[in-house]
Amino acid sequence: MAADKETGAPRGAALAGVKVLDLSRVLAGPLAGQVLGDLGADVIKVERPEQGDDTRAWGPPYLKDEEGTDTDVAAYFLCANRNKRSVAIDIARPEGQALVRKLAMRADVVLENFKVGGLAQYGLDAASLMALNPRLVYCSITGFGQDGPYAARAGYDFLIQGMGGLMSVTGAPDGEPGGGPQKVGVALTDVMTGLYAAIAVQAALLERTRSGLGQHIDLALLDVQIAGLANQASNYLAGGVLPRRMGNSHPNIVPYQDFPTADGDMILAIGNDGQFARFCGVAGHPEWATDERFATNPRRVAHRAELIRMMRQATILRGTAEWIAALESAGVPCGPINRIDQVFDDPHVRARGMRIEVPHPEAGVAPLVASPMRLSASPVRYRMPPPALGEHTDQVLAEWLDMDADQLHQLYLNAAI
User: Fold this and answer.
1) Within this chain, do residues 62 and 155 fall inside the same structural domain, yes or no?
2) Whether the predicted pLDDT of 3 surpasses 80
3) Cα–Cα distance between 269 and 256 in angstroms, integer?
4) Looking at the structure, do residues 76 and 113 belong to the same domain, yes or no?
5) CATH code for the domain in which residue 130 is found
6) Taking all residues of the chain, what is their mean pLDDT, rounded to a whole number?
7) Are residues 199 and 272 in the same domain?
8) Could you tell me the pTM of the whole model?
9) Rounded mean pLDDT, 253-278
10) pLDDT at position 175, please?
């Protein structure tokens, strides 16, 4: 355990003692729960008996055991469910609803991503649970939010990428081969929503230390996606410029895109005039840096097509590794376009420990992506692998609710757990 540098006293996990009841499934909500769990919160994942989180069945691929044989653990489920305990409760049954209410009375946080109003029929909505526990931070994640004309609609990442403008700026330009709308290669809106949820929950917990009261957090995938448009939204709102698909080009910076090499491709991410001048020297064309068409970024943006054509004729003459070595030595931001296997084989990625292995009861070990959060005194710890369905039901109900064996047996007989 890390110690305080001044006092030498041991310091625990950042969110140690925080109890989270995670009623969510698929990606955005579970990812938020995983972030909180990584930071030390006790996260209880409530799942449907026998079925569990939808992503448990989203395979192949599946986690392999030590002999290389597929287990029944879908790889998708692994990405957002470590550092949690799984409790199987049927919330369609009155006994199950009562259990969740009791757990919520002892929780600090509830995460859920049911449709708007979907939990009210069970008495598990924000108003009902916060009436029982006024200190509860209740985070609802939906496609379109708790109000507005689309509130009742189901929301999915792909749908929101389209509606939220991301696909209008992603992909090859219209009129070029492969042009047209393109989604991002991961469920990025879900990922961003999970991160915003974790941030909002922690903010609400901090505010609770002053007010003594919890609050309801309303997070919508569409809102998050619009916020995630960043400079593209600002270009439109402030400058009246309607962004369009530009492939790998940047709307505001030139050159900032991919370039062909003798044996593949590379990325140039040139952010200022000095970097451009240094690139020109390495490329053997120092005259480009003083050419009035290219000397400043606004001029390069204005003469984008001309400059990119000239640069491509130069970059194709050397291999990727040769370019990267020369440009890095000159302080010009550049890099390869890696496949995912190359990502995890990169020496820097290995040095940063971004691939981890945690013990797993079915597979021996489960390979996972590490948390990118580096806290010097209260670091992330990988305490538990993604759980089996209902693995901790008895343990959690005994620990949180002081239930004995007879009470648990009755709940099993009633099919509540």
Assistant:
1) yes
2) no
3) 4
4) yes
5) 3.40.50.10540
6) 95
7) no
8) 0.93
9) 96
10) 85
CB 197 within 8 Å of CB 32: yes
Residue 27: pLDDT above 90? yes
Q: How far apart are CA 385 and CA 357, in angstroms?
A: 9
C-alpha span between 141 and 111 (Å, rounded)? 8
Pairing of strands 19-22, 42-47: parallel
Name the phi and psi angles at 265, rounded to 5.
-145, 160
Active-site annotation holds for 190: yes
Domain termination site, one of 315, 338, 361: 338
Q: Which of 338, 366, 391 is the last residue of a domain?
A: 338
Q: How confident is the model at residue 178 (pLDDT cuts 50, 70, 90)?
A: confident
DSSP letter string, 354-408: -EEEEEETTTEEEEEEPP----SSS------PSPPTTTTHHHHHHHHH---HHHH
**Catalytic annotation, pick one of 38, 190, 218, 223:** 190
pLDDT tens for residues 123-162? 999 999 999 999 999 999 999 999 999 999 999 999 999 9
Q: Contact at 8 Å (CB) between 15 and 184?
A: no
Nearest alpha carbon to residue 28 among 188, 202, 228, 151: 188
- Structural domain boundaries enclosing 155: 19-228+353-413
Q: Are residues 205 and 94 in the same domain?
A: yes
